[in-house]
Amino acid sequence: MIETNKPTEKAFIVAVKLNENSEDDIKESLNELKSLLDTAGAKVIKSFIQNRSSIDPAFYIGIGKVEEIKKEAKENNIDTIVFDTELSPRQIRNLEKEIGKKILDRSWVILDIFALRAKTREAKTQVELAQLKYFMPRLTRQWTHLSRQVGGGVGTKGPGETQLETDKRLIKTRIAFLEKELKEIEKQRIVQRKSREDEFKAVLVGYTNVGKSTLLNKLSNANVLAENRLFATLDSTTRIVELKNKKYFLLSDTVGFIRKLPHHLVASFKSTLEEIKYADLILHVIDVSHSHFREQIKTVEQVLADLKVLNKRTIYVFNKVDMLPKEDLEIINLEHFKSDKIFISAEKNINIDKLKDKILKIIEEDFRIKEFKVPIENSKLLSFIYQNSEVIREDYDDSHIKILIKAKTPNMEKIESNFK
């Protein structure tokens, strides 16, 4: 694992270009890996791309390329070799033995960054669980410190057990503990959702580093860290956003997505990502100035499809328009997208009010207007109406109140049920 409190590590990065891969796509993926390593505290010295018709099951790359990397790593005093894919345990062992340097893969680096960024109990639990499930099959003899975390110590090693077997048992115990912790946290989330079920909820989704935190700050006057680095913020944040006509909505941020996101990480963050399922609106934030923003959209939409929320009402929020010439924006504007779209700059405060107006229009579409005749003595029903609707007009007679209200559809249905 990369340790950021030590002097900057020097790294090589390696990718394989198969016949179905474009050269441009491989280079973009390597540039992204370089940014990941910068975030994790390592400096990339050189990139290697090997053209192959298939992956080598033993080394991922061919033995000739292994020898080339070994030679150059020794000459340049390289600490770490990072592969732009998820390597098998066998490939990592073979490469470390052959090259004699620390071998990491893309998933390992992403997990390392998530561990660095996690601040809340939930995020730390999610990340540690993903790390342990990832590291388990890649286990070497580096895990004895876990005995202090899972109640081990003297007497934890059974007779005849090897250190590796003990380490695996400790990890399994820790995984079981973390999974139990996440179930408890999920129970708390369910309670929180119930308390907010009558509120209009929007959620920010998008590729990492597209400006979601900056937009959250602009819309809600929040003070969330907005840093120009991958996964600058990790912990989910919910804020109130005030609109015109005394309307408001709850806006939640989510973890940024990235290509080749480790599946253990997605699984561990399942409860957090499920907040998207319960949202009324998705704001899909896109860095329109990025040369590969269309591919980033596809990556995000694949995760949304996996969560079965791809058809939920969505606004495509094309951010950073101040960084593109007008003619490029006009071309993008003509492209087909399945939902509403708007072009903004969160940093420069361009079209933020228009985005709020667009959201307000959607919220008001979710409201119904209806008139009721309520007996004056039915104080319980009247109290519910006043608390859960907007009273437009009310007229009194001796025994009833004729009241015209505007309410969210679920609340209106609850009120209507009293008159059946």
Short précis:
The protein is of the alpha/beta class and 420 residues long. The protein has 14 helices and 13 strands.
Shape: elongated
Strand proportion: 15-25%
CATH architecture of the largest domain: 3-Layer(aba) Sandwich
Structural class: alpha/beta
CATH level 1 class label of the largest domain = Alpha Beta
Show the helix and strand layout.
Layout: E1 9-17, H1 23-40, E2 42-51, H2 63-75, E3 80-83, H3 89-99, E4 102-105, H4 106-117, H5 121-135, H6 163-195, E5 201-206, H7 212-220, E6 238-242, E7 248-252, H8 263-268, H9 270-273, E8 281-287, H10 293-306, E9 314-319, H11 326-334, E10 340-343, H12 352-365, E11 367-375, H13 379-388, E12 390-396, E13 400-408, H14 409-416
Parallel strand pairs: 1-2, 1-3, 3-4, 5-7, 5-8, 8-9, 9-10
Antiparallel strand pairs: 6-7, 11-13, 12-13
